[in-house]
Protein backbone atom coordinates (compact mmCIF):
# COMPACT_ATOMS: atom_id res chain seq x y z
CA UNK A 1 0.00 0.00 0.00
CA UNK A 2 1.08 3.62 -0.43
CA UNK A 3 3.37 4.97 2.29
CA UNK A 4 0.95 7.81 3.12
CA UNK A 5 -1.99 5.41 3.56
CA UNK A 6 -2.16 5.66 7.35
CA UNK A 7 -1.72 9.44 7.23
CA UNK A 8 -4.87 9.57 5.10
CA UNK A 9 -6.71 7.02 7.27
CA UNK A 10 -6.08 9.09 10.41
CA UNK A 11 -7.44 12.21 8.69
CA UNK A 12 -10.61 10.49 7.51
CA UNK A 13 -11.22 7.52 9.83
CA UNK A 14 -14.78 6.99 8.59
CA UNK A 15 -13.96 7.09 4.87
CA UNK A 16 -13.92 4.25 2.36
CA UNK A 17 -10.11 4.11 2.36
CA UNK A 18 -10.10 3.65 6.12
CA UNK A 19 -12.63 0.84 5.90
CA UNK A 20 -10.64 -1.00 3.24
CA UNK A 21 -7.38 -0.63 5.17
CA UNK A 22 -8.96 -1.90 8.39
CA UNK A 23 -10.50 -4.83 6.53
CA UNK A 24 -7.15 -5.81 5.04
CA UNK A 25 -4.89 -5.24 8.04
CA UNK A 26 -7.21 -7.11 10.40
CA UNK A 27 -6.20 -10.24 8.49
CA UNK A 28 -2.47 -9.95 9.14
CA UNK A 29 -0.52 -10.62 12.34
CA UNK A 30 2.58 -8.48 11.80
CA UNK A 31 3.21 -5.10 10.16
CA UNK A 32 6.56 -3.92 8.79
CA UNK A 33 6.86 -0.13 9.21
CA UNK A 34 9.45 2.09 7.53
CA UNK A 35 10.54 4.32 10.41
CA UNK A 36 8.98 5.32 13.71
CA UNK A 37 6.51 7.89 12.36
CA UNK A 38 4.75 5.26 10.26
CA UNK A 39 4.87 2.85 13.21
CA UNK A 40 3.16 5.47 15.39
CA UNK A 41 0.46 5.99 12.77
CA UNK A 42 -0.19 2.26 12.46
CA UNK A 43 -0.31 1.90 16.25
CA UNK A 44 -3.03 4.55 16.46
CA UNK A 45 -5.22 2.52 14.11
CA UNK A 46 -4.19 -1.00 15.16
CA UNK A 47 -2.90 -0.79 18.75
CA UNK A 48 -2.70 -4.58 19.19
CA UNK A 49 -0.74 -5.43 16.04
CA UNK A 50 2.94 -6.31 16.35
CA UNK A 51 5.10 -3.78 14.54
CA UNK A 52 8.55 -4.37 13.08
CA UNK A 53 10.40 -1.12 12.38
CA UNK A 54 13.12 -0.98 9.72
CA UNK A 55 14.89 1.79 7.83
CA UNK A 56 15.90 2.33 4.17
CA UNK A 57 19.56 2.73 3.23
CA UNK A 58 21.44 5.02 0.87
CA UNK A 59 23.34 3.30 -1.93
CA UNK A 60 26.98 3.17 -0.76
CA UNK A 61 28.40 4.59 -4.01
CA UNK A 62 25.96 7.50 -3.92
CA UNK A 63 26.66 8.05 -0.21
CA UNK A 64 30.39 8.43 -0.87
CA UNK A 65 29.67 10.87 -3.69
CA UNK A 66 27.41 12.97 -1.47
CA UNK A 67 29.88 12.98 1.42
CA UNK A 68 32.49 14.46 -0.91
CA UNK A 69 30.36 17.56 -1.54
CA UNK A 70 31.59 20.75 0.10
CA UNK A 71 28.58 22.73 1.31
CA UNK A 72 28.27 26.28 0.01
CA UNK A 73 26.06 28.50 2.23
CA UNK A 74 25.75 30.98 -0.64
CA UNK A 75 24.73 28.40 -3.25
CA UNK A 76 21.94 29.67 -5.54
CA UNK A 77 19.47 26.76 -5.32
CA UNK A 78 16.73 25.91 -2.85
CA UNK A 79 15.97 22.31 -3.71
CA UNK A 80 13.22 19.73 -3.44
CA UNK A 81 13.93 16.16 -4.52
CA UNK A 82 10.51 14.86 -5.53
CA UNK A 83 9.16 12.09 -7.71
CA UNK A 84 6.06 10.00 -7.23
CA UNK A 85 2.93 11.22 -5.46
CA UNK A 86 2.98 15.02 -5.48
CA UNK A 87 0.55 15.30 -2.57
CA UNK A 88 2.67 13.00 -0.40
CA UNK A 89 5.76 15.08 -1.20
CA UNK A 90 3.96 18.38 -0.47
CA UNK A 91 4.83 19.83 -3.87
CA UNK A 92 1.92 22.29 -3.65
CA UNK A 93 3.40 23.83 -0.50
CA UNK A 94 6.85 24.07 -2.07
CA UNK A 95 5.46 25.83 -5.15
CA UNK A 96 3.50 28.20 -2.91
CA UNK A 97 6.83 29.35 -1.44
CA UNK A 98 7.96 30.81 -4.78
CA UNK A 99 6.85 34.41 -4.02
CA UNK A 100 8.51 34.26 -0.59
CA UNK A 101 11.75 32.93 -2.09
CA UNK A 102 11.76 35.69 -4.69
CA UNK A 103 11.15 38.33 -2.02
CA UNK A 104 13.58 37.03 0.61
CA UNK A 105 16.35 35.87 -1.70
CA UNK A 106 15.94 37.40 -5.19
CA UNK A 107 19.04 35.74 -6.63
CA UNK A 108 17.99 32.22 -5.62
CA UNK A 109 16.10 29.66 -7.69
CA UNK A 110 13.70 26.99 -6.49
CA UNK A 111 14.62 23.66 -8.11
CA UNK A 112 12.18 20.73 -8.05
CA UNK A 113 13.51 17.37 -9.23
CA UNK A 114 11.53 14.28 -10.20
CA UNK A 115 8.78 15.80 -12.34
CA UNK A 116 8.42 17.17 -15.84
CA UNK A 117 7.28 20.76 -16.35
CA UNK A 118 3.92 19.52 -17.66
CA UNK A 119 3.40 17.59 -14.41
CA UNK A 120 3.60 20.73 -12.26
CA UNK A 121 1.87 23.16 -14.61
CA UNK A 122 3.49 26.25 -13.14
CA UNK A 123 5.80 28.83 -14.67
CA UNK A 124 8.06 31.22 -12.80
CA UNK A 125 11.32 32.93 -13.66
CA UNK A 126 12.88 31.65 -10.43
CA UNK A 127 11.66 28.03 -10.81
CA UNK A 128 13.80 25.32 -12.44
CA UNK A 129 12.27 21.91 -13.29
CA UNK A 130 14.99 19.60 -14.67
CA UNK A 131 12.72 16.54 -14.68
CA UNK A 132 13.91 13.11 -13.56
CA UNK A 133 17.66 13.08 -13.03
CA UNK A 134 20.13 10.28 -12.31
CA UNK A 135 22.61 12.37 -10.34
CA UNK A 136 21.02 14.40 -7.53
CA UNK A 137 24.52 15.31 -6.35
CA UNK A 138 24.87 17.78 -9.21
CA UNK A 139 21.95 19.75 -7.76
CA UNK A 140 22.76 19.28 -4.08
CA UNK A 141 26.21 20.70 -4.82
CA UNK A 142 24.55 23.96 -5.91
CA UNK A 143 21.96 24.07 -3.10
CA UNK A 144 22.05 25.90 0.21
CA UNK A 145 18.76 24.41 1.48
CA UNK A 146 16.45 21.48 0.81
CA UNK A 147 12.67 21.57 1.39
CA UNK A 148 10.41 18.57 1.98
CA UNK A 149 6.85 19.32 3.21
CA UNK A 150 5.83 15.65 3.28
CA UNK A 151 2.30 14.50 4.02
CA UNK A 152 2.82 11.13 5.64
CA UNK A 153 6.07 10.53 3.71
CA UNK A 154 7.34 7.59 5.74
CA UNK A 155 11.14 7.99 5.63
CA UNK A 156 12.23 9.73 2.42
CA UNK A 157 15.73 8.80 1.29
CA UNK A 158 15.90 12.19 -0.44
CA UNK A 159 16.22 13.91 2.94
CA UNK A 160 18.96 11.46 3.97
CA UNK A 161 20.83 12.24 0.75
CA UNK A 162 20.52 15.94 1.47
CA UNK A 163 21.95 15.48 4.97
CA UNK A 164 24.79 13.38 3.54
CA UNK A 165 25.64 16.24 1.19
CA UNK A 166 25.56 18.64 4.14
CA UNK A 167 22.56 20.51 2.73
CA UNK A 168 20.17 21.22 5.64
CA UNK A 169 16.61 19.98 4.94
CA UNK A 170 13.51 21.70 6.27
CA UNK A 171 10.80 19.04 6.60
CA UNK A 172 7.23 18.88 7.84
CA UNK A 173 6.19 17.27 11.11
CA UNK A 174 4.50 14.62 8.93
CA UNK A 175 7.78 13.52 7.34
CA UNK A 176 9.39 10.46 8.93
CA UNK A 177 12.95 11.80 8.91
CA UNK A 178 11.84 14.50 11.33
CA UNK A 179 13.09 12.08 14.01
CA UNK A 180 16.65 12.84 12.89
CA UNK A 181 16.28 16.53 12.12
CA UNK A 182 14.56 17.56 15.35
CA UNK A 183 17.73 16.32 17.10
CA UNK A 184 19.88 18.49 14.83
CA UNK A 185 17.80 21.68 15.09
CA UNK A 186 14.08 21.84 16.01
CA UNK A 187 13.61 24.78 13.62
CA UNK A 188 14.19 22.37 10.72
CA UNK A 189 10.87 20.64 11.50
CA UNK A 190 7.83 22.73 10.53
CA UNK A 191 4.09 22.43 10.81
CA UNK A 192 2.47 21.30 7.57
CA UNK A 193 1.37 24.73 6.39
CA UNK A 194 2.56 27.32 3.89
CA UNK A 195 2.87 29.98 6.60
CA UNK A 196 5.06 27.86 8.85
CA UNK A 197 7.30 26.85 5.97
CA UNK A 198 7.65 30.54 5.12
CA UNK A 199 8.71 31.13 8.71
CA UNK A 200 11.22 28.30 8.47
CA UNK A 201 12.57 29.71 5.22
CA UNK A 202 12.90 33.19 6.75
CA UNK A 203 14.69 31.73 9.79
CA UNK A 204 17.19 29.86 7.63
CA UNK A 205 17.91 32.73 5.26
CA UNK A 206 18.72 35.10 8.12
CA UNK A 207 21.50 32.81 9.35
CA UNK A 208 24.99 34.01 8.51
CA UNK A 209 27.30 31.81 6.40
CA UNK A 210 29.16 30.39 9.42
CA UNK A 211 25.88 29.46 11.13
CA UNK A 212 24.72 27.70 7.97
CA UNK A 213 28.01 25.80 7.78
CA UNK A 214 27.67 24.66 11.40
CA UNK A 215 24.13 23.49 10.68
CA UNK A 216 25.41 21.67 7.60
CA UNK A 217 28.03 19.87 9.67
CA UNK A 218 25.49 18.85 12.31
CA UNK A 219 23.17 17.42 9.62
CA UNK A 220 25.96 15.34 8.12
CA UNK A 221 27.14 14.16 11.56
CA UNK A 222 23.64 13.07 12.59
CA UNK A 223 23.14 11.24 9.30
CA UNK A 224 26.40 9.31 9.68
CA UNK A 225 25.56 8.36 13.27
CA UNK A 226 22.17 7.16 12.08
CA UNK A 227 23.62 5.06 9.26
CA UNK A 228 26.40 3.56 11.36
CA UNK A 229 24.42 2.91 14.55
CA UNK A 230 20.65 3.46 14.64
CA UNK A 231 19.87 1.96 11.24
CA UNK A 232 22.14 -1.04 11.78
CA UNK A 233 20.73 -1.93 15.21
CA UNK A 234 17.10 -1.37 14.20
CA UNK A 235 17.37 -3.36 10.98
CA UNK A 236 19.24 -6.19 12.70
CA UNK A 237 16.43 -6.45 15.27
CA UNK A 238 13.85 -6.37 12.50
CA UNK A 239 15.57 -9.08 10.47
CA UNK A 240 15.93 -11.27 13.55
CA UNK A 241 12.24 -10.91 14.35
CA UNK A 242 11.26 -11.74 10.77
CA UNK A 243 13.42 -14.88 10.94
CA UNK A 244 11.68 -15.88 14.18
CA UNK A 245 8.28 -15.42 12.57
CA UNK A 246 9.28 -17.52 9.56
CA UNK A 247 10.62 -20.28 11.82
CA UNK A 248 7.43 -20.29 13.89
CA UNK A 249 5.22 -21.06 10.89
CA UNK A 250 7.37 -23.85 9.43
Give an account of the 3D structure.
The chain has 13 helices and eight strands. By secondary structure, the chain is an alpha/beta fold. Strand 7, helix 11 and strand 8 form a beta-alpha-beta unit. The chain has two domains: 72 residues, no CATH class; 166 residues, 3-Layer(aba) Sandwich (Rossmann fold). The mean pLDDT is 93. Helix 11 packs antiparallel against helix 13.
Properties at a glance:
51% helix, 2 domains, Rossmann fold, two-stranded parallel sheet, globular, alpha/beta, 13 helices, six-stranded parallel β-sheet, 250 residues
Q: Strand sequence of the main sheet, in spatial order?
A: 5-4-3-6-7-8
N-C termini distance: 27 Å
Query: What's the helix count?
Result: 13
pLDDT < 50 runs, ≥5 residues? none
Question: Which fold name corresponds to the CATH topology of the largest domain?
Answer: Rossmann fold
Count of individual beta strands: 8
> Shape from CA axes?
globular
CATH level-four homologous superfamily name of the largest domain: Glycogen Phosphorylase B
Proportion of strand residues: 5-15%
Helical residues, percent:
40-55%
N to C succession of SSEs = HHEHEHEHHHEHEHEHEHEHH
Number of separate domains: 2
Reported CATH architecture of the largest domain: 3-Layer(aba) Sandwich
Mean pLDDT level: 93
The CATH class of the largest domain? Alpha Beta
The radius of gyration is 19 Å
Biggest beta sheet attributes: 6 strands, parallel
SS content category: alpha/beta
